[in-house]
Amino acid sequence: MSQVQSDSDKKAVMGEKYKAAFAESLQQPAEFWKAQADSIDWFRKPENILSRGENGNDVWFADGELNTAHIALDFHVDNGRADQPALIYDSPVTNTIQTYTYRELRDNVALFAGALENLGVVKGDRVIIYMPMIPEAAIAMLACARIGAVHSVVFGGFAARELATRIDDSEPRVLLSASCGIEFANTIAYKPLIDEAIELASHKPETCVILQRPQCEAAMGARDLDWYQALTDANGKMANCVPMLATDPLYILYTSGTTGKPKGVVRDNGGHAVALQYSMKAVYGVEAGEVFWGASDVGWVVGHSYIVYAPLFAGCTTILFEGKPVRTPDAGTFWRIIQDHKVNVFFTAPTGFRAMRKEDPNSELLKKYDISSLRTLFVAGERTDPPTYHWLREILQIPVIDHWWQTETGWPVAGNLMGLDPAGTKAGSVSFPVPGFNVQILSEAHKQEAAGEEGDVVIKLPLPPGCLPTVWGDHNRYHDAYMTLHPGYYHTGDGGYFDEDGYLYIMGRTDDVINVAGHRLSTGEMEEIVAAHPAVAECAVIGIEDPDKGQIPMALLLLKDGINDTHEKIKLDLTALVRKEIGAFANFKQSIVVDRLPKTRSGKILRQVMRKIADKQPFEPPATIDDPMILTEIEAALVENGIGMIGRRD
Ligand code: COA
Ligand code: AMP
């Protein structure tokens, strides 16, 4: 396997501070995390740091009591940061910039929490938040945390059916939304999607609180209540911070798995606060008072952890950006925001930079701005392809840190730790495991792979604080999905390897999850939709490489006999169907018709093999393949349709 030399002035060796912290975190996890737990303001400090729960799980801080909104806001208001900007809303799509100090944000949160209480929401109730990137989304999340309600944020790009699935699984008492989102120049009305979702769902929320935006007024129904009316009805009541056990759930965030049904990843209060606080210092190297910008969406885990919670826990100023890296208004938007708000640390997905590079390859727009405040750039959400990494290094001349994590872990599993004596970076690598994460590479037979050998990326138990303790309402699913394949280890679903210097490389999912423009999607779910089309006899959906979006989905179709529709019509139907059922951001546009699908003798479709053929990667047909000739047919069909190789990015 080819090794890339260190790509910065520093050597490709782990720093001493990092080595010491990492060793302590694995050898004495309870002592290590007890010390980290001291950095947050508990209502009751935990004595019991790491214990075994009733279901056999490792449990962090079982007897600790805290409130997440208190740690994020009240603590800072009471300790000298009341007038410091806590959140800056920058929205080029509405021409708005609005700053909330810690005191203002705390008061807005306490008032909206009072409105929720007035609607009957109590500790443990679920609240769905289906909102665009506006400050009220963060206020809603923190208001839930304040009164102990469990929020579940649903990304605004999801279609009604996806929202319905999440309503049925989490059974919210209240749904919070806005009249619309804004996508470039388009206004996306949310209310019709909400009405359709509630119609489709068996569970019905009692109230939908809708924030009317001037770009699109929603027609209100019997269940609906205007956002400001909800506040007026509560008579200015400010809710107090409810004491929560460390193990009480803070939120549920649904993520795509290998089946059609998304998994409700649960996050607890205590482990989350301790882990995120630690990450701000150790991983991101940020201090209180600095400006941290995560350009993502509150609908994803990056938005939860690094737009809303962690920057506030750490006493930083966070930026909430409603826009895109391009065309809002141009590919210089990121640089403008970094200049205007003096951003110190920036975190986003590589796909955004690929879009910018396409429009401004020589980074001419960068020359218009003074971005000297920017110290470090972090990228995650998908693999950073080496060309994008080198482009960023060249134009920015600051450390570019690719770091790797998942919805399930809630915070980075591997990265080059800016707060712990960072080493040199290597293009294509996510550097080293973060303290607390005992990352290993295992073969199918559970044996540890040697350096340079690719295998399953797993984390030896116990997982550190902050990682998911369960799947909402289905602990067996948690066990089956994550803990069964390699007993004693958490299975990440990613494949990868360590090099001789201990640098970790994440090479992509080994299951049916794909990553489209930094958005995680299930091909299994798309297959269910495609298979329901009356012309389709059988199908497989795979993720193939794409130069802009990282991956895009593609369906291979076997059609029923006697179908009169043209292939073209069927393909267009399928594109429209997936767009309607999942959302436009799935970017499902490619389908090809084949005569047969490659399978094992037991009938399992060989999706990973087809993906490798499409991406022109080496592959070994499994010994159990039914008829190897089918692979040649598939390759020919891909070539005939102009698919394959076009997307290779490195
Ligand atoms: N609400 C409604 N529709 C949405 C949406 C949302 N929140 N997000 C995306 N869509 C729609 C887009 O409008 C587009 O619709 P169209 O087919 O009608 O044009 C479609 O979904 C595809 O979207 P996308 O793949 O995102 O392409 P794009 O051209 O709109 O934007 C990028 C390209 C790179 C700017 C964008 O993908 C991006 O910012 N990605 C980063 C994602 C991210 O932050 N992930 C979190 C990990 S850190
Ligand atoms: P999500 O749960 O949406 O954050 O998606 C997590 C998945 O995205 C991981 O399992 C990886 O497959 C992929 N991913 C995230 N960050 C990286 C990265 N830095 N390098 C490679 N893959 C990544």
Task: Please describe what this structure looks like.
- The chain is of the alpha/beta class.
- Among the domains are: 99-242, Rossmann fold (3-Layer(aba) Sandwich); 513-640, GMP Synthetase, Chain A, domain 3, CATH 3.30.300.30.
- Helices cover 31% and strands 23% of the residues.
- It is built from 18 helices and 31 strands.
- The strands form 10 sheets. A 7-stranded mixed beta sheet has the order 5-4-17-16-18-19-20, sandwiched between helices. Strands 7-6-8-11-12 form a 5-stranded parallel beta sheet, sandwiched between helices. The protein has a 4-stranded antiparallel beta sheet with strand order 23-24-25-26.
- α1 crosses α2.
- The protein is globular, with a radius of gyration of 24 Å.
- Mean pLDDT is 95; it is low at 1-5 and 646-650.
